[in-house]
Amino acid sequence: MKKTTALIMVLLALALYYKGYTVGTMLATTGHAKLQGLNIEEVGDTPAELWIEVHDVSPGYGLEMLGEITNIIDKHKPVVDKTVLFVIPNHNGNTPLSKYPEFAAELKRLSHEGYVLGMHGYTHRVGWINPEFKTNQTTTRALVDASKTEFKLAGLNTPSYFSPPGWRTSKDASQLLRSEFKYIFYAFFIDTENSTLPYPLHEYTWSGLDMGGLENAKKSYKNTVGIYRLTLHLNAVNTEENLELLDKFLKFVEEEKRLP
Predict the structure, then answer these.
(1) Do strands 201-203 and 195-197 pair parallel, antiparallel, or not at all (unpaired)?
(2) Distance between CA 250 and CA 35 in Å, rounded?
(3) pLDDT tens, N- to C-terminus, the chain (260 residues)
């Protein structure tokens, strides 16, 4: 019996891997959904949508860096199903969005061009032991309210997308965030009000596309169904090499989507 169970688990892990997932992703997603009392959305067999996430969007990094990324995305816009700009409302507690009208105006322009504005914490305090949203509901409510106020003062609509700094929250914070936002993006999955979408990020800011270069990213994209999340971090991604990789990967997606 034990051997049969083990074999089933191995086969399930292999099936998930070839759909673009890993055992670690599966365990993290299952554990989170169970803790929160959520259903895991079933992964279909359709080719992956391409969602691009640009994290750490902050006026502290200036308009030029943001423009370097959006200019490349705009070149390949027809094959990008969604781009979310995760904006830090008050980066480090000393860069309030409302004090940078030119930056806020550019965000508004991009939202009119089809970009989705998301909220990325409040000050974006990140620490392994105590990240910003690994806290109680009272503090979470205060942080969300302060973030909403900053968006309002900047003349921007309140986002319905959220990503916690460091990808981590407490159970109480997660529950409150689901009541406030349509999508909450974590490293291994995305939460909605009533379910968890089992789609992991593919980060390439620091280590090259998909933690192993362009060829690995291509294979990963081909093996993914549902949603392929390409995750970038502003400032860290703004090197000539990384921007070139982004352009090449999006060209590859164009070629893939032209296939019969």
Answers:
(1) unpaired
(2) 36
(3) 444 444 444 434 434 443 445 666 777 788 887 888 888 877 766 668 999 999 999 999 999 999 999 999 999 999 999 999 999 999 999 999 999 999 999 999 999 999 999 999 999 987 767 899 999 999 999 999 999 999 999 999 999 999 999 999 999 999 999 999 999 999 999 999 889 999 999 887 655 544 457 888 888 888 888 899 999 999 988 989 889 889 999 999 999 887 54
Residue 17's contacts (CB-CB under 8 Å, 6 or more residues apart) are: 23
Place of tokens 């806290």: 135
Q: Domain spanning 14-257 has what CATH number?
A: 3.20.20.370
pTM above 0.90, yes or no: no
Domain residues of the chain, as ranges? 14-257
Query: Both tokens of residue 235?
Result: 């400032």
How far is residue 162's CA from residue 182's CA, in Å, rounded to a whole number?
A: 8
Place of tokens 């959220």: 162
